[in-house]
Amino acid sequence: MVERDGPDVTACERCPALVESRSRIVNGVGPDDAALLFVGEAPGANEDAEGEPFVGRSGTVLDDALRDAGLARADVRITNCVRCRPPENRDPHVEELDNCADFLEREIEFVDPDLIVTLGKVPGERLLDRSVAVTKEAGSVVDARLGGASRRVLVCLHPAATLYDRSQREAFDAAIAKAADLAGVSTDGGGGQSRLGDY
Ligand code: URA
């Protein structure tokens, strides 16, 4: 088997405010050849404490939607635009997104997913390099040049949006189900590695 250098960041001091506020760097989790790559904004308090993206209430919403689409969290890769927790959970600043951009690019290139799903406005706008009306565009698929290739990107709401507004849950779940479908992963609830090519 050929070993590949992973996309994890082990040390970084590019953003002084984030170095101050983080307790650790939160790298992406999941298979390094996942068909589906989810990209969020930045770690919050729970993620900073546990060292894993989307483990708080937003993570539960995402896990539930994945399960309903026949997927387990372990089947997909989950990462963020910024790997360190911003103070008081503020949005990452543009320069912080810029500082972390090459790490995400490297992760996308390394994982080479069939489909990227942006969770919320920040990753949507970052990856598509334009303004995005997330609620209106949820579930739409566009091509973008990322990680050295043209990639399919599915726009999705941030899972936290469904906690603030229950009526968004249907659109969120529908976008995740569409992502599972487009990436050719199982919707039979069977779990396990589920690239269509595996069957
Ligand atoms: N929100 C995000 O955007 N990312 C996380 O990892 C957790 C919450």
Automatic annotation (TrEMBL):
Catalytic reaction(s) noted: Hydrolyzes single-stranded DNA or mismatched double-stranded DNA and polynucleotides, releasing free uracil
Family: Belongs to the uracil-DNA glycosylase (UDG) superfamily. Type 4 (UDGa) family.
Alphabetized SUPFAM superfamilies for the sequence: Uracil-DNA glycosylase-like
Taxonomic superkingdom: Archaea
Lineage, top ranks: Archaea, Methanobacteriati, Methanobacteriota, Stenosarchaea group, Halobacteria
PANTHER family reported in the protein's UniProt record: TYPE-4 URACIL-DNA GLYCOSYLASE, TYPE-5 URACIL-DNA GLYCOSYLASE
Entry keywords, A to Z: 4Fe-4S, DNA damage, DNA repair, Hydrolase, Iron, Iron-sulfur, Metal-binding
Protein name: Type-4 uracil-DNA glycosylase
Family annotation (SMART domains): UDG, UreE_C
Record-annotated Uracil-DNA glycosylase-like domain positions: 27-181
EC number: 3.2.2.27
Source organism: Haloplanus rubicundus
Listed GO MF terms: 4 iron, 4 sulfur cluster binding; metal ion binding; uracil DNA N-glycosylase activity
UniProt-listed GO biological process terms: DNA repair
InterPro entries, per the entry: UDG_Type-4/5, Ura-DNA_glyco_family4, Uracil-DNA_glycosylase-like, Uracil-DNA_glycosylase-like_sf
